[in-house]
């Protein structure tokens, strides 16, 4: 069964790889832009969830013991805020808890997303991640529609949102790596990586559009979550029908995809000797033995496990450098 999306099947016979490269570049650019766009609302809407609820003499406070001073009404902007974030004594803790819950879930999700992305079709992986990300972004705003004032609800939404949002970076980077070789990779990736800043900019613009005095007075801050979530979900559907994760899915060989690199490799192979002087002739019995145990072909691509990655010497180099620097520093202090 073909792995290419339905709308690309009619173009499979073309050998013009530049069209596919342009499609992948634009599509992955918009994909990760939408990921950052959907992350932005919570940062902007905090001002509407807690709007200048300053404590005045006699105003309500959970720890107030002096009842001789009559309570004064809260200002109008504070009355338009949303519980449980409108408490002047706890709103900082609640907002900090939302950020910590999201970041921890995002960090943990990155480990799982990297393994899953290597073992399944990236088109399905990104589509599922974008649909769930949009749904969780909307779910935070739906707290207003469903009249939810439980802090646990918003924490759970942030945790799930962090997990599904972690699907974005491994997916788009894997697609770009499959299509673009080493030639001009710095220029291509440099321009492509601007999606992060643009996503934050557009996300802030969309979210702040519904935070004027009129919108917040009527509780319309939830729209700031709805439209970013809708955008990433629509793009998730586009990904399902247009994304081509790997050139092999449309019959494009590496020679067609990277002709300059293929030509350079062929020239190097022509001038290199078949057998080095330091190498010995392989026995005839060894020629028929499989290169790897189990008889699996050598050119078969297999995902590297997390434990296997740690066995690579380069992966432990930072730890060695750090420990060596610390050791030398301690020795110099002791001898000085």
Report what the structure shows.
- By secondary structure, this protein is mainly alpha-helical.
- The protein is built from 16 helices and no strands.
- It is elongated.
- The C terminus is likely disordered.
List the helices and strands and how they pair.
Elements: H1 17-39, H2 41-49, H3 76-79, H4 91-119, H5 122-145, H6 151-165, H7 168-179, H8 185-192, H9 195-208, H10 213-217, H11 223-242, H12 254-257, H13 259-271, H14 284-287, H15 306-310, H16 317-335
Helix pairs in contact: 1-5, 1-7, 1-9, 1-11, 2-9, 4-6, 4-7, 5-6, 5-7, 5-11, 9-11
Q: Brief overview, please?
A:
With 336 residues, the protein is mainly α. The protein is built from 16 helices and no strands. It is elongated, with a radius of gyration of 28 Å.
What structural class do you assign from the helix and strand content? mainly alpha
List how many beta strands DSSP finds: 0
**Helical percent range?**
55-70%
Q: What proportion strand? A: under 5%
Q: What is the CA–CA distance across the termini? A: 70 Å
Topology as a string of helices (H) and strands (E): HHHHHHHHHHHHHHHH
Largest sheet: none
Task: Provide the descriptors you would attach to this structure in a database record.
336 residues; mainly alpha; 16 helices; elongated; disordered C terminus
């Amino acid at each position: 069964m073909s792995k290419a999306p339905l709308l690309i099947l009619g173009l499979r016979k073309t050998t013009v790889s530049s069209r596919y490269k342009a499609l992948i570049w634009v599509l992955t650019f918009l994909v990760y832009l939408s990921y950052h766009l959907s992350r932005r609302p919570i940062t902007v809407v905090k001002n509407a969830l807690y709007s200048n609820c300053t404590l005045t003499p006699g105003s309500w406070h959970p720890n107030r013991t002096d009842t001789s001073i009559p309570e004064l009404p809260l200002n109008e902007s504070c009355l338009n805020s949303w519980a449980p974030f409108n408490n002047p004594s706890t709103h900082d803790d609640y907002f900090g808890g939302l950020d910590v819950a999201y970041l921890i879930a995002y960090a943990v999700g990155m480990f799982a997303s990297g393994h899953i992305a290597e073992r399944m079709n990236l088109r399905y992986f990104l589509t599922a991640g974008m649909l769930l990300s949009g749904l969780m972004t909307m779910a935070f705003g739906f707290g207003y529609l469903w009249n939810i004032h439980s802090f646990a609800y918003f924490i759970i939404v942030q945790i799930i949102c962090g997990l599904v949002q972690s699907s974005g970076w491994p997916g788009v980077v894997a697609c770009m790596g499959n299509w673009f070789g080493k030639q001009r990779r710095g220029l291509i990736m440099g321009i492509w990586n601007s999606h992060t800043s643009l996503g934050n900019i557009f996300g802030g613009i969309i979210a702040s559009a519904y935070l004027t005095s009129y919108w917040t007075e009527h509780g319309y801050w939830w729209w700031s979550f709805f439209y970013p979530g809708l955008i990433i979900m629509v793009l998730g559907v586009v990904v399902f029908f247009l994304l081509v994760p790997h050139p092999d899915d449309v019959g494009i060989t590496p020679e067609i995809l990277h002709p300059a690199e293929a030509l350079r490799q062929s020239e190097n192979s022509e001038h290199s000797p078949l057998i080095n002087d330091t190498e010995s002739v392989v026995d005839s019995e060894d020629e028929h033995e499989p290169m790897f145990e189990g008889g699996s072909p050598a050119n078969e691509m297999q995902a590297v496990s997390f434990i296997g990655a740690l066995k690579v010497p380069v992966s432990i180099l930072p730890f060695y450098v750090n420990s060596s620097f610390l050791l030398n520093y301690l020795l110099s202090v002791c001898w000085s």
